[in-house]
TrEMBL record:
SMART domains reported in the protein's UniProt record: HTH_ARAC
Domain named HTH araC/xylS-type: residues: 178-276
Ranges that cross the membrane: none
Presence of keyword Membrane: no
GO molecular function: DNA-binding transcription factor activity; sequence-specific DNA binding
Keyword annotations from UniProtKB, A to Z: DNA-binding, Transcription, Transcription regulation
A family per Pfam: HTH_18
Lineage top rank: taxon: Bacteria
InterPro entries on file: Homeodomain-like_sf, HTH_AraC
Protein name listed in UniProt: Transcriptional regulator, AraC family
Length: 283
């Protein structure tokens, strides 16, 4: 059943299952993330045999067909959301909430099917603790409805989960730069130093930056900054988080420094970026 937001008198098309039993998947009109934390499951996904061992994530769209064959000591939780979940934003002049044409792009590839995209993601040991924490907070927010910003916080953590999963999905080979990218995508909300990246990639600073320049067109720390600002862009458009909340959630200690860096890279302030992408034309 959809959640009801008593603070804003609206229905929110999301559900969280702390214990996913795999009996009713996929959920109608929902994208679903199933986080498998223990055990092994064998199934048929769209008539193809699959096997997922923990830790792993299964991404299902409403059009997928899943038939479970065997569950061995399985523990899993799931979060499902309507594709239009991100199509609600606030008109700041009136403080009201209305549907819009805003669409989240990050993570949608996880629910598309082709020969290279199966919807099955194996989670690295480095990514598992962060993903586990974010899923825990996501479930807590769904159940608690602690204050008027509970939906906003869910959007925040969902954006971060989808971006992490999408980036992990793109990392097929674990070259030294992939190890560094994995570290950035997992740890960007906290403090990340160049020494952290050289240690995980087992390279010196010069070699690491040369590899980043060749592959990403910037230094390692430059990539970290651009990645944080990319996440910030999603949070600005799809949530009502304050600039200070966004800054701290992506690894900046002060919102003033975040604003300075965002403005320099995007050639507009975070507030202008948010307003531009929430232009009244989309209502």
């Amino acid at each position: 059943m959809p959640q009801y937001d008593q603070y804003k008198n609206r229905s929110v098309d999301i559900e969280f299952a702390a214990v996913e039993d795999f009996e009713n998947l996929p959920y109608p009109e929902r994208f679903t993330l199933i986080f498998i934390t223990n055990g092994i499951i064998k199934a048929q996904l769209n008539e193809r045999p699959i096997e997922i061992s923990a830790p792993g994530v299964l991404c299902l769209s409403m059009d997928d067909k899943l038939q479970v064959i065997n569950k061995d000591n399985i523990s899993a939780q799931s979060f499902s959301f309507h594709p239009d979940f991100f199509k609600t934003s606030r008109i700041f002049e009136t403080q009201t909430y209305k549907p819009s044409n805003l669409k989240i792009q990050v993570g949608l590839s996880l629910f598309q099917r082709d020969n290279s995209q199966t919807g099955i993601l194996h989670i690295t040991s480095k990514a598992f603790p962060q993903l586990f924490e974010w899923f825990f907070i996501l479930g807590t927010e769904v159940y608690a409805h602690s204050n008027a910003l509970w939906v906003c916080r869910i959007k925040k953590y969902l954006i971060q989960i989808l971006r992490l999963l999408e980036d992990l999905n793109h990392q097929i080979e674990q070259s030294p730069i992939d190890l560094a990218l994995d570290y950035i995508h997992t740890n960007y909300p906290g403090k990340v130093t160049l020494e952290d990246l050289t240690n995980c990639a087992h390279l010196n600073r010069i070699s690491l930056n040369e590899m980043f320049q060749k592959r990403c067109g910037c230094t390692a720390m430059g990539y970290l900054l651009s990645y944080r600002l990319k996440v910030a862009g999603d949070l600005l458009v799809h949530t009502d988080m304050t600039l200070d909340e966004i800054a701290r959630s992506i690894g900046f200690q002060y919102d003033t420094y975040f604003i300075k860096q965002f403005t320099a890279k995007r050639e507009m302030s975070p507030t202008a970026f948010r307003n531009t992408h929430r232009n009244l034309q989309h209502y």
